[in-house]
Design brief:
This protein is mainly β and 179 residues long. It has one helix and ten strands.
Length: 179
Amino acid sequence: MKKVILSAAVALMSFAASAQVWVGGSLGLQITDPDYEGSKSITTFTISPEVGYTLNDNWDIAIAINESYASQDGESANSISVEPYARYTFAKSGIASFFIDGGVGFGSTEISNDGDWLDKSQTQWYIGVRPGLKLTISDNIGLVTKLGFLGYQKVEDAYSSFGFNINNSALTFGMYWSF
């Protein structure tokens, strides 16, 4: 039994030693000024830490935890979601790698209006793909940007949608550290 456990431990360590694990994520801040009269600006802050594993030159698997907080004149929304995904790198040129992330996300949003009728929670899920670009600036550091979303989204008691979203609110920037 000791030989089996020792063999499994050695196999796991050799697998992990050759592995390319990366951590990182992105931060976001968006201030929106609505056009309708009497409205105040909407401030949104997002943090999205990620951890991933490089399987080979073309494939990665990862999981991200996305938390977002938005507020406007006494109203606020706090969202958290978990998003496992797979990344396929389809083209490389020098330090640039072009990829597509395909994944699913599950989450919840808590909406508050200083005790008004909006106090409730909504669940959501989504499935889709996001194109992106990675710039490898050293052996251990990469800068990543993703733009858009093509897929299906469902928010409980609110809406469901299918389509392609490509605007500045769907643009993210992040940094990864590989070890």
